[in-house]
Automatic annotation (TrEMBL):
Residues 3-149 form the N-acetyltransferase domain. PROSITE patterns: GNAT (PS51186). The lineage of its organism: Bacteria, Pseudomonadati, Pseudomonadota, Alphaproteobacteria, Rhodobacterales. InterPro entries: Acyl_CoA_acyltransferase (IPR016181), GNAT_dom (IPR000182). This is GNAT family N-acetyltransferase.
Length: 149
């Protein structure tokens, strides 16, 4: 199985939305079809705040990854955050997510991104091992805090 990354395009909207719906259901993330479409569609249409990559064959992707962008003084420029990474359950444990987490930073570095961040559930030891294997490091001094607006 190949973890080839393909930048999603507007014509991929239905494929991406189906994957996002599956991920949100699995992770018990409350979202509506309309809210998912409102969040994904601008990224596929070229809004500069992020990108969606399909994982695997473009005709039948096995997953997706959403990267959002911001500016960091600490990291010296544009940085990115993996907002969502999803691999379909039947193809998990085959190294696909590892391939994605190795290929994606290379692609982003070539585009001038200086750092890539992600968040992980404190209880999800499997995901933490995956991220550590792909050279993501915990920032023990910091804790993600959120205020919904």
């Amino acid at each position: 199985m190949s973890a080839a990354l393909h930048l999603a395009k507007p014509e991929d909207l239905d494929k991406v939305l189906a994957l996002v719906a599956a991920f949100h259901t699995e992770m018990d993330i409350a979202s509506s079809e309309d809210s998912r479409k409102a969040a994904i569609e601008p990224l596929l249409n070229g809004i500069p705040y992020g990108a969606v990559y399909l994982v695997g064959p473009t005709r039948a992707p096995v997953g997706y990854v959403v990267v959002t962008f911001s500016w960091s003084v600490e990291f010296g420029g544009m940085d990115g955050a993996i907002d969502e990474l999803y691999i379909r359950p039947p193809v998990r444990k085959r190294g696909i997510a590892t391939e994605v987490l190795i290929a994606l930073p290379k692609t982003l570095a070539e585009a001038g991104i200086t750092a890539l961040h992600l968040e992980v559930d404190r209880e999800d030891e499997s995901a933490q091992r995956l991220y550590a294997r792909t050279r993501f490091k915990a920032r023990d001094r910091y804790m993600l805090m959120t205020k919904e607006l």
